[in-house]
Amino acid sequence: MFDAVELDDGVVMRLLAAGDGPALAAAYSRNREHLAPWEPLRTPEFFTPAWHHRDVAGAIARIHAGTSVPFVLAQGEQIVGRVNLSDLVRGVFESAHLGYWVDERFVGRGLATTAVGVALHHARAAGLHRVQAGTLVHNTGSQRVLERNGFERFGLARRYLRIAGEWQDHVMYERLLDE
């Protein structure tokens, strides 16, 4: 389905695996403050291995159902980021949503840009026509990652997601994979 890909700095992009719960809990705990402005409010339980063990089991079920492709970025045993193709729709739509984050230590080093490119390659190989992503209006770093990967801005979704406890507008991007 997807062979692991070596990125930079000894980071490997691979599919999420059943045993990744503890490493994900550690990654989210380590990046708690870094990710807080860009994510939903998290309960204390979210940062536990038990929560991530359950979440990983659900994500693997969605892989088998064909509705999601969750990747991790791993440096040795440590997870240093995520890239997700989610909400896969087949048939007349052939599309997915893209989400991603990288460990604070890797911000500004091109890792997110490279990982998104690998995810797009996988999406194209899987026969998808379109990948869509949204960023907070003020998240210019994420917007640059998308634009470097050929995404085009196509609109503004008002009060799109509840991030950091508030309904926030998002700039919407799309990438057509068969152009």
Automatic annotation (TrEMBL):
Query: What is its EC class?
Result: transferase
Q: Name one GO molecular function term.
A: acyltransferase activity
**What Gene3D superfamilies has UniProt attached to this entry?**
3.40.630.30
Annotated EC? 2.3.1.-
**What positions does the domain N-acetyltransferase occupy?**
11-178
Q: Which UniProt keywords apply?
A: Acyltransferase, Transferase
Where on the tree of life does the source sit, at the highest rank? Bacteria
Q: Per the similarity annotation, which family is this?
A: Belongs to the acetyltransferase family. RimJ subfamily.
UniProt protein name: GNAT family N-acetyltransferase
Which species expresses this protein natively? Agromyces lapidis
